[in-house]
Write a structure and sequence with these properties.
By secondary structure, the chain is α/β, with parallel strands linked by helices. It contains eight helices and seven strands, in the order βαβαβαβαβαβααβα.
Length: 223
């Protein structure tokens, strides 16, 4: 199934979960159809990717997810792109299903929709904020606007205007919809590391909220 497809996996200090994610992806994809972008990790993340036989791009310093994904796209040539978070572990294989509607021409970008976060998740305020503004600016309601699991054609990626940090998913969604492409969602059973209702978790979501605000501000012309 991997001909013409590449799974881009941005990873920063994911040594504890990356191996499981890559093994899971190889259920459907050949190792050479998986491209890991090591975003300046210092825990051996890159070595794990190298041992599994996947392609690897090592960034010298941590520059954030948006930059890592952009670097991965630039370093590959396949016409169909799949973005996969490094912390999905054994559930990662399900993301390959996102490619099917794109290859069939039924959608230009397909986003994995997640089940509602459990007690270990946050309160959903950042997600609600992103949902509300995306709907207001584009007319489309997404249940999982922050989902990093996405499949799209390379030409659709060209609509992305760029951004910094954790605003990547929202910025990409806005740019793709603004360009007139069709975006759909697909429910998948996925598991990842939840930041939880801890100080570290709230700090992470605070940074995420700030980066999303910046992404909206940079696209204020949509108003």
């Amino acid at each position: 199934m991997s001909r013409g497809m590449v799974a881009i996996v941005p990873a920063y200090n994911e040594a504890d979960r990356l191996a499981g994610t890559l093994r899971s992806l190889t259920i459907w994809l050949e190792p050479k159809s998986i491209f890991v972008v090591d975003d300046g990790s210092d825990d051996g993340t890159g070595e794990i990717a190298r041992r599994t036989g996947t392609r690897l791009l090592r960034l010298e310093t941590n520059q954030g997810k948006a930059h890592a994904v952009t670097a991965g796209v630039a370093a590959t040539q396949e016409p169909y792109l799949l973005f996969v978070d490094a912390d999905l572990g054994t559930s990662a294989w399900a993301t390959v299903r996102l490619l099917e509607p794109v290859v069939r021409g039924e959608a230009d970008m397909v986003v994995a929709s997640w089940r509602k976060a459990g007690r270990r998740g946050g309160f959903g305020l950042v997600k609600w904020f992103a949902q509300w503004w995306i709907r207001r600016l584009t007319g489309q309601r997404l249940t999982s606007p922050l989902s990093g699991q996405r499949a799209l054609r390379r030409e659709v990626w060209e609509a992305f205007r760029g951004c910094d940090g954790f605003g990547f998913e929202v910025a990409l969604t806005l740019d793709v919809l603004r360009a007139g492409y069709k975006v759909s969602e697909m429910p998948l059973e996925l598991k990842h590391r939840e930041t939880g209702r801890t100080w570290q978790g709230f700090r992470h979501r605070g940074r995420q909220f700030g980066h999303i605000l910046r992404a909206f501000w940079e696209r204020r012309d949509l108003l």
